[in-house]
Amino acid sequence: MFKFLLNRKFKKLKKSYNISRNSDDRNFFCKAPFGALRFHRNGSVQVCCHHIDYYFLKNRSLKSIWFGKEMQTLRKQMLSYKIPDSCNFCSNPFLQEDFGNVAALSFDYLELNKNGYPVLMDFSLSNTCNLACVMCDASLSSRIQKERNYEPEEKFVYDTNFLKQLDEFIPFLKYAVFTGGEPFLINIYYSIWERMIQLNPEININVTTNGTIFNQKVVDILNSGRFNITVSIDSFVPETYSQIRKGAVLAETFKNIEQFERICKQRGTQFSITICPMRINAKEIPEIIQTCNEKQWIFNYNIVLKPWNLALWSLPFSELNDIIKFYENSKFENNNEVAQQNIKKFNNLLNLLKIWQNKVLQLNSQSSTNSSRKHPELRNEIIEIILIKIGNSRYKNLVENVVNSIPDILIKKEFSDFIKRYPDYILKNEFKNNDLETIIDHFCILAFNT
Fold first, then answer.
1. How far apart are CA 364 and CA 406, in angstroms?
2. CA–CA separation, 272 and 297 (whole Å)
3. pLDDT in the model for residue 242
4. What is the pTM for the complete model shown?
5. CA proximity to 288, closest of 241, 324, 234, 334
6. Sheet holding 226-232: strands in order across?
7. Is 432 in contact with 154 (CB distance < 8 Å)?
8. Which of 2, 241, 264, 292 measures 20 to 30 Å from 27, CA to CA?
9. Is the pLDDT of residue 97 over 90?
10. Is 176 helix (H, G, I), strand (E, B) or coil?
11. In the predicted model, is pLDDT for residue 390 greater than 70?
12. Cis before residue 68, ω within 30 degrees of 0?
């Protein structure tokens, strides 16, 4: 009877989820495994940036990964709505009926190829960057990596062999996404862009930039293809902006933003901005929305889960409640289509904060009732699980430092159980190729999402 009730509840949840979708193709939970590939700087391949299972180009060809049995298994799971642990970033909001923050829905626009080749490729091939943003880490910023005096044990070089493998896929692509680091500082991107423009001139190329790099080289490439530009900016207040985007000056970035917007308008492509809502800029978000509405800039936001001490989810209940009330009292002019979409995204953010608020209550309750179990037994249990899975005692001190740095509120049995199921090779890669601060950030995210 209990199983029957669970199945009935899940069917109702699935129906509500599909009603919320813009796509008519609702045969599966997520389209990403059927149409998208993402490349990371360490040579790993995923279906999206939130997918925590991946395959390495150093061991296999791109074609064997895309058409391989692992991807076929993932596709079958998506068809049956059996969402794997590797997709818990989306399964959590799905199960909480927070459909506006299910990242899987962002792939619903994809029109899949009948020949089975992907329609979207997402490139994050290098951490080369001129900034040291407070919410970033060494895996995404070479400047932070340099400041922390850290080098990963393993490096992967995207070379001419990779470019040749891409040639088979590029003609079937409809979209390509480029992030960094800072994309306009990553040399191989220019080679890929030139190849794409030559082999598939109608492809939509989406570049997310910090907006600080604008020169003739950038102008020339933007004028040769269909480039949609997103500028990550986080604040329109000079002091706040400099506090977040360390190494950048708002006035200079705004000059570049005007140039990016001008080129996009001339070429009929899309210009947008992206904000990372966190403690530093939380109260500025409504004003940012209003400015975007007035300028008809498309607004997007990233879900900031790290570092935990800057993220909104880690705020005390009363402070998070204060931000929620502030957002609820915010009013916007709704006089154009862009404004309507921006307000919808703002409401999704507001809903996410309410869900986090409920989770904070739940975590506080668990923390108080299970405190005797957590200190130190559960931490030691998690440490032992990780050491067994990575099978290398030389990481013992690093593992202990990481687990002991996770906030008390996140140390729970569910996290321990999740680590038991976590793929061994991903854990090994995490400790081999990231510095202490970055690993702590990553583990806090995992712990919060379990």
1. 15
2. 5
3. 96
4. 0.88
5. 234
6. 55-56, 44-46, 36-40, 120-124, 175-178, 204-209, 226-232, 271-275, 298-301
7. yes
8. 2
9. no
10. strand
11. yes
12. no
